[in-house]
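Worked example

This section walks through a single chain of length 174. The input is the sequence exactly as stored; nothing has been trimmed or padded.
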Amino acid sequence: MRVRLLAIFVLFISSSLPATAQGGLSFSGLSSLLRSAFSSENVIYKSTPSQVSKPSDVVYEKLSSFENMYDIASQYVSQYTATEDECSFKVKGITIRLRIARRIAGELVEVTSVSGSPFRFTSRAYITSTSRKESTITTEVEATLNSALKMVFDAKLRSAVEYVNKELANQLSK
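Given that input, the structure is written out below as tokens.
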């Protein structure tokens, strides 16, 4: 079955491959195309900074423990369970498991996916103090995606990172 699918794939794309001097298909062109179609790459999605009407230490305190995130997360996900360092929840029937990988007091909370999540990713919340009473938050997601997943999810991940960052800022400002 796989050989048949590969043969169909090769026939389908053969018109776009570089030709050899004899007019045939270039093996290096085919090899390069197949490698790029199935290889994975790290992709980084970064939001624009959002204003939070709380000082950076308060924002950090909230984000640095999954136990503190229940009131924010429970509005958007189901079956949220958490400890200080790990959480799991469901989004549209898909279980996501996360772990806090790194903390820098008042500046950064880095979260990674745990095995069993649909794809590997790291999310970083950068917190910047803008005054004694205000700060900004910028969210960044680094995901390992193959070309096919990137084609399908690229626009969705870009908009999701912006949305999550704005919602975090809104919720943290309350």
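What to look for: The helical segments are 2-13, 27-38, 56-63, 70-73, 147-173.
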